[in-house]
Amino acid sequence: MALMRDAPAQSCPSTAERLVIGGANDVCGPPGTAAPAVRAGTLVLAASLAIAVALTMTRRSGVSRAGLGVLLLGAAVVAAPGARALLVDRADAPLRAGATASTIANLLGDLDGYVSEHHGCVAEIHDDCLACQPLLRFVVPRRVACARRDGRIDLAADTLASALPSPASRPCAVEQGALECGHTP
Prior knowledge:
Blueprint: H1 16-22, H2 36-58, H3 65-89, H4 97-117, E1 124-127, H5 132-139, E2 152-155, H6 159-162, E3 172-175, E4 178-181
Helix pairs in contact: 2-3, 4-5
């Protein structure tokens, strides 16, 4: 299967961070990144398969087992890259969806717990985590005027990458009154 990729595309939502940024409808790889020869070969294969199906459906004598096998093999070859992306490469693939959900839930739990301890008042938020911005809006939907200036959240760029889906490993820790999330370089 020469058309199948060895690794997920750079922009494939293969991590929790990419899934949050791109959403569930994000695709693996920007359109048009395949080499022209691969795109042309895929188009020729798909067109050939479509013509074969059309001819088979219009024939009166029926479909032979060998012909049906060839059609199914061709359909499988055309569908293989997309199936792999949906079932293996993506962070919301069936075998990885639980770990991705746990990763996001761990981060949201840490953020929500800290904000609740400060009664919804967080004086400063340092947010270098692009994927954390939509999640942070769930926890702190609006900024509240603070009587005390002690609540601070620091979200490093790799916060979601460090949010391992394990209860023993938390993405954030309270250090000197501030919630530190992720590993700053």
